Amino acid sequence: MKAFAQTILIAAALMTTNMAGAAVYKYIDENGNVAYGDKPVDGSKKIKIQSTRNLSPESEAAEDSTEQTTKRDSTPAELDERTDEEAAAATVYKSLIVLTPKPDKEISGSSGSVQVIFLPTPTLARDDQLVISVDGKDISKGRDANVSLKDLSLGSHNVQGRIMDSDGKLKIQSDSVTFHVKD
Predict the structure, then answer these.
(1) Three-class DSSP category at 108
(2) What is the pTM (predicted TM-score) of this model?
(3) 51-182 has CATH 1.25.40.10 classification
(4) pLDDT: is 157 or 183 the higher one?
């Protein structure tokens, strides 16, 4: 239940702010749980939310962004002792979650647009890439954890993400989420 509540809080923060300039803060609440919000509180840390792109299933995989993300789960002293390559190779992902769309969500065909948001934990390492697939076809490869799918045909579709290292080796894969585009 705790993970579900965190997911809802993150999704709400993401949907109620301008994604390009959104600020999301991670903190420990009064009960000792990890929580997220759109306003800083005592002891909170700002986390990076990557920009949204519009893609159609027919579009080619997007080019890699040069944007860098702060490494998590390391002290400053540990980061100073490692090269960037060692740090990226050392990143072990705990999870890769599809925040949206929710499983079995029904989407109106008139809108034909679906927001897809992934949450990697820890954040994506600088040399790693998130590959997003719709119906088994890679549509995005790079650093963006958010994409907007347009012009989807009616019927059921599934979305899945996987994080690959700079050598193309799989580090973690999300569950596949099925959603439905209806009339």
Answers:
(1) strand
(2) 0.55
(3) no
(4) 157
